[in-house]
Amino acid sequence: MRKARLTTVTSLALSALAFSAVGLPSPATAVPAAGSAAQRTQAAPAAAPKRERPELPAYIHGGAWPTSHVQGVTVDAENGLVYWSFTQALVKTDLAGNVIGTVEGLTGHLGDIDLNPRDGRVYGSLEYKAEEAFYIAVFDVDAIDRPGMDAETDGVMTAVHLSEVVEDFTADMDGDGVFDGDTADTADHRYGCSGIDGVSFGPSFGSRHGATRLMVAYGVYSHTGRADNDHQVILEYDVSDWSRWERPLSQEDPHRSGPRRPAGKHFVYTGNTNFGVQNLEYDAHTGDWMMAVYPGAKEEFPNYSLFIVDGSVRPHRGEIAGQPERERGSLLTLVRDGLHDPGTGVRGWEFHGNYGLAALGDGTYYAAEGGPVEEGGQTLQEGWVDRYRWTGATPTPFAPVGSVSGGLEP
After folding, report:
1. DSSP run (H or E) holding 165
2. Structure confidence at residue 7 as a pLDDT band (50, 70, 90)
């Protein structure tokens, strides 16, 4: 049993910060004559000092919760904040792991999350498979100021519905007129789509400095008996006008407000994986896109746990291999590094980023891990992140910064 450092809270006391102003003129100070040098100097006050980025620790604990396992993590490094997806709850902490607030009451599956650098909100994949509804949940994280906030009633979450995902998830691929539901053991589900999971913000593929886009990766069922599920599928969205689609979400009566089609739909040949891209992450340091997965089971593939899309290469039109009818689409290119399987041409690495992966923009990364822990006679799920730096080595391209898991013993 890990000797865990738990930070679960039941109450939160917020203390005010005190600020002092230096060098402000006294109200009794005489006003200089119009146009004088002194007046011009006062009319152009000095710029506020640039805020220094907080030091990022080697380890952060995200608490232990009565939910399913940690599924995603994103870091607001400038403001010293961390956001954690625990599948039925969003948790907000500082860099020391102190809980600031939580959003609870989710009955669907909250997956991977990412911070939108344009509006400062956190976006995450949210699934309701029984209702055939798939969303991007949008959290107003500035308003998350206490534990126990409700996703429906506290005004901190809206949602945008993704029709494209529904169409692929519910596709009747065997033509028998029956949708077989949430199961891998079927020919249904176009491309093997099981919903969505990985999400990340970054420029369009092949455009290092382009406008920010939201990329949403499919979940893909593990099925070794079909050949049309060997690609990762990534939808591209321009979210700059998504305010017209955003709605509060009633989970008893889920809405269908959202774009009819994505701005792009891309395919990456990796071989079948177990539930697709668990964590998608744009790395501003390299300009590439990381895809952390649960390895697949097809013996003809190498079944790596980490793939990286070359962000400098534009998508090209080509055949989407293995489809029941010949189909062409927008194909992405894996970087020409790492492990290489000559039989399939697939490249990748081995690394445990499937519980959460956050690129920090400086060549270092947080990778999440988690598991059950007993507390007060109850089984909870805890999560934590360790900081790594990129080495590019094979088979594992990361090396820990400091002691893994905060120096805690297994």
Report:
1. helix 163-169
2. very low
**DSSP E strand stretches across 204-294:** 212-220, 231-237, 264-269, 274-283, 288-294
Please give the Cα distance from 111 to 135 (Å, whole number): 11
Q: Kind of pairing, strands 212-220 and 193-203?
A: antiparallel
Q: Tell me: the pLDDT tens digits for 70-89?
A: 999 999 999 999 999 999 99
Q: 3-state secondary structure string, 309-353?
A: ECCCCCCEEEECCCCCCCCEEEECCECCCCEECCCCCCEEECCCC
Average pLDDT over residues 260-271: 98
Q: Which residues lie closer than 8 Å to 13 by C-beta, 6 or more apart?
A: none
Mean pLDDT of 144-161: 97
> What pairing do the DSSP bridges indicate for beta strands 157-161 and 149-150?
unpaired
Would you say 91 and 106 are in contact if contact means Cβ atoms under 8 Å apart?
A: no
Spatial CA neighbour of 90 closest among 113, 107, 121: 113
Q: What is the DSSP string of 33-88?
A: PTT-HHHHHHHSPPPPPPPPPPPPPSEEEEEEESSS---EEEEETTTTEEEEE-BS
pLDDT tier, 27 (very low <50, low <70, confident <90, very high otherwise): very low
Q: How far apart are the C-alpha atoms of 288 and 290, rounded to whole Å?
A: 7
**DSSP conformation class of 187:** S
| CA-wise closest residue to 350 among 293, 280, 274 | 293
| Residues in CB range of 328: below 8 A, 6 or more apart | 317, 318, 319, 320
Extract long-range pairs of 179-183: CB within 8 Å, 24+ residues apart. 182/129, 182/130, 183/221
- What confidence score (pLDDT) does residue 194 get? 97
CB 5 within 8 A of CB 61: yes
Asked if 323 and 233 touch (Cβ cutoff 8 Å), the reply is: no
As a residue count, the chain comes to 410
CB atoms within 10 A of CB 300: 13
Nearest CA to 251 out of 391, 392, 109 is that of 109
Q: Which of 125, 154, 153, 127 is nearest to 138 (CA)?
A: 125
pTM score: 0.86
